[in-house]
Design a protein that fits this description.
Structural class: alpha+beta
Shape: globular
CATH class of the largest domain: Mainly Alpha
CATH topology of the largest domain: Transferase(Phosphotransferase), domain 1
Largest sheet: 4 strands, antiparallel
Distance between the termini: 61 Å
Number of strands: 7
Helix content: 40-55%
Number of domains: 2
Order of helices and strands: HEEHHEEEHHEEHHHHH
Bound molecules: adenosine-5'-diphosphate, magnesium ion
Oligomer: single chain
């Protein structure tokens, strides 16, 4: 049997055996992303995404413009075949720079086929969160070191929420580069946005109010960030000061989103020492 090779571009054809397998799995797959076993290997198939709703993209653009904060602009996900190709390009770039990201097996107009990157880190964290918080935060710290290294290499993720990390053996990896295209942002703004998404996504694991863990992770990341990245986050906090003050005021009585925003902001503020 031929092994799958990296074929890209609009006319790309998959290995016929793999093509037939994916077609049959797609008929019953409940999700847009699913795994397939082929030639003794586990592969992952990402099918085309719908572009985001125009109204929500417009709303995000308006917010970014009103606050004059480019880092709040929406990612450009073209959806369709173009979106798959953009993600394949981003994955190849990051892997070529030596970072752990799934190998691109094939990219056709219908599918992006990736090698296995291990378990989703989020499912490990969910199982450790209450039972073994030290282990949970050890894994989170490893992911934050990886994100810091990615930034130090002059790169960014684009969707750096913890749900887009994997865990393989005893090391973290990077998943899901669908939101990698961030037009209209400087490198510092792209990296600052990564840090905001990452820190915000961790608040739900910081369960013990007597021993908060998020501030140390935020301090590590901001301590290793460039002055421009720190300046971008400072600017965001300044421009959104009234909104953040409102979130702090409402936090004790509000829902999870507001409490998480207040907790993430407190960790960032402490890390910036302002
Ligand atoms: N290469 C891969 N290796 C391991 N798991 C993967 C891989 N690609 C996707 N997954 C799993 O599928 C989930 C969804 O994939 P992802 O690329 O994050 O797309 P999306 O979030 O847009 O649905 C991931 O959170 C992960 O659990
Ligand atoms: Mg994802």
């Amino acid at each position: 049997m031929t092994s799958p090779t990296d074929r890209t571009g609009p006319g790309a054809k998959l290995d016929p055996g793999l093509d037939a397998l994916i077609r049959s799995l797609q008929r019953t797959a409940p999700d847009r992303v699913f795994s397939a076993h082929y030639n003794g290997e586990r592969l992952w198939v990402k099918t085309v995404a719908r572009p985001r709703l125009r109204s929500s993209v417009l709303m995000q653009k308006v917010v970014a413009t009103v606050f004059a904060l480019p880092l709040l602009r929406p990612a450009r996900n073209r959806g369709g075949a173009g979106g798959l190709m953009d993600e394949a390009d981003a994955l190849r770039k990051v892997a070529a720079a030596g970072f752990p990201a799934p190998p691109v097996i094939a990219c056709t107009p219908d599918w992006l086929v990736l090698g296995d990157a291990g378990e989703a880190l989020e499912s490990k964290l969910n199982s450790l969160r209450d039972r073994a918080p030290d282990d949970c935060w050890r894994l989170i710290t490893a992911a934050s070191i990886l994100l810091g290294r990615l930034h130090a290499a002059g790169l960014w993720h684009g969707g750096a929420q913890i749900r887009n990390f994997s865990w393989h053996g005893d090391t973290p990896g990077l998943l899901d580069f669908e939101d990698h295209q961030l037009p209209g942002m400087t490198l510092a703004e792209k990296q600052a946005r990564d840090l905001l998404l990452f820190v915000y996504s961790l608040t739900r694991y910081d369960r013990d109010a007597t021993q908060p863990r998020l501030p140390a992770v935020a301090a590590h990341l901001l301590g290793h960030a460039t002055p421009e990245v720190r300046a971008s986050i400072r600017k965001l906090r300044r421009r959104m000061a009234w909104l953040l003050a409102l979130a702090r005021w409402l936090a004790p009585h509000a829902g999870r989103d507001v409490r998480q925003a207040a907790a993430a902001d407190a960790a960032l503020a402490a890390a910036l020492k302002d």
